[in-house]
Amino acid sequence: MFLRPHYRRRNGQREAYWALVESYRTERGPRQRTVAYLGLMDEAGRLGVEQAADPQPPSPQRALFPEEKPTPRFVEIDRTRIRVENCRQFGGPWLALELVKQLGLHEFLARTMPPGREQVPWPLTALILVIARLCEPSSELHIAEHFYRQTALCDLLGVPLDKVDDNRLYRGLDELLPHKPALEAFLKQRFGELFAIEYDLLLYDVTSTYFEGQANANPLANRGYSRDHRPDCKQVCIGLVVTRCGLPLGYEVFAGNRHDSTTLKEIVETMEARYGQAQRIWALDRGMVSEVNLDFLKAGGRQYIVGTPKSQLKRFEQQLLTQDWRAVRDGLEVKLCACPDGGTETYILCRSRDRREKEQAMHARFERRIEEELAKIAAACARSRQQVGPLERRVGRLLGKNTRAAGLFEIQIRAAENGAAQITWKKVDTWRAWAQLSEGAYVLRTNVSGWSDEDLWHAYIQLTDAETAFRIHKSDLSLRPVWHQKEDRVLAHILVCFLAYVLWKFLGQLCQRAGLGDEPRRVLAELSELRAVDVVLPTKDGHEIRTRCVTQPTDHQKILLDRLGLTLPGRLQKIDL
What we know:
By secondary structure, this protein is α+β, with helices and mostly antiparallel strands. It contains 19 helices and 17 strands.
């Protein structure tokens, strides 16, 4: 039996009236007869009648095969028992995988990390580590026991939950680390293809990250100058090279007690061996500046723009007094100055209003601290007899803690006739005059010719992109502290953070191209609100229909997806990598 529509027009509209029709055989051939006229029916009623209609008897051949339970096309749902289960994070991991696909990182990993006897391919394990570092930075144990189970990565990657544990993730770190040079070369080429990136200006800076634990198995772990204000912990130093738009080009890891200036030659030679010795300009912080490093750069015909120590300002006192400054933006003035020694280098004298206000506030704060403490020392001398030696050491400690204004005070400590110590001080007017003249000023040094003072300043100030990269590594991607103790695991941890930052910057570039600004943090946070859920529909006959769905995006999320050119899947399914 089957349903047959009969059409008629009513009130100018075409309507279908349904009839239940039966097929039967006769001597003259098959015939059909109407069993019942059903009239108007909605879609649910029509499907219900079709399912209730008894088809032809099943063939005996079906007994030879396993019986498959047909999926009903029409069921009655018990609305009072509808529920949602297994709510998991979807937006963040899905967005990360879309970035991986557009970047082609999955294809590179599949080519570079050949399959073996492992149950989960190493490229997928590496992607789990990188995606977790981008979406929810944590330890490998937390990824295996919490993050992976609370996200939709299981469905998106097709890797079962029971196949992901901390041991597999640790081994994934070991398998990924040997491919670091090839990864950096691939990313450099891929960024150039996607965004037409120029590599004429490279920015290099160094930071540090500290360990929790002794790290006795790591020869790179040493105590040194800590940017994290943790001198009590061992650390390693990381030198990062980025392009003028902040895209990471490569990095190297150094011992924690190594001075920044000693890393320059190694990083420059590494980059040149990997990408060729093209005409590039190196922008370096003043911590890299030494005559040895500058001689090395000059000897290889390399160009540079570097900061100089504060003491270099004394050589340009006359230029600070003149008025031939050029404003490059509100609150910033620059001027080109010839080398005082008659060399071929060019110096760029810069003066910033914001920097001057900051240094003025610092000088005032340290001056007030010194004066207040000196007044306390003088009062102590007036109350009781003080020894000269302990008093001198106390003053020395005071000036050592407030070096910004220590030169302003001329302090004398002498013994009176009765042997008691007396303290007097006065302020040095010449020091104050020089401080007021030099506040907010700094000097850059370069061997680049033909550039204006504004272009040189802009090139150097882009070093803030490297500083921003370090800040994102440490805050958003939780580079610090390092809990691994072995050297290779530490290096692999830093590599995973680097790859997560690559996805971060890639998303930032897509946002800029889409007119969304450089806001990857906000875009990632907004789309991470999307969830994957299991919708359970109980039927009145006691069965349950379970389907996995993705929550509908809000209007703001729809705008972001549309601008980025991304299409959100309606149902949860494995992504084809």
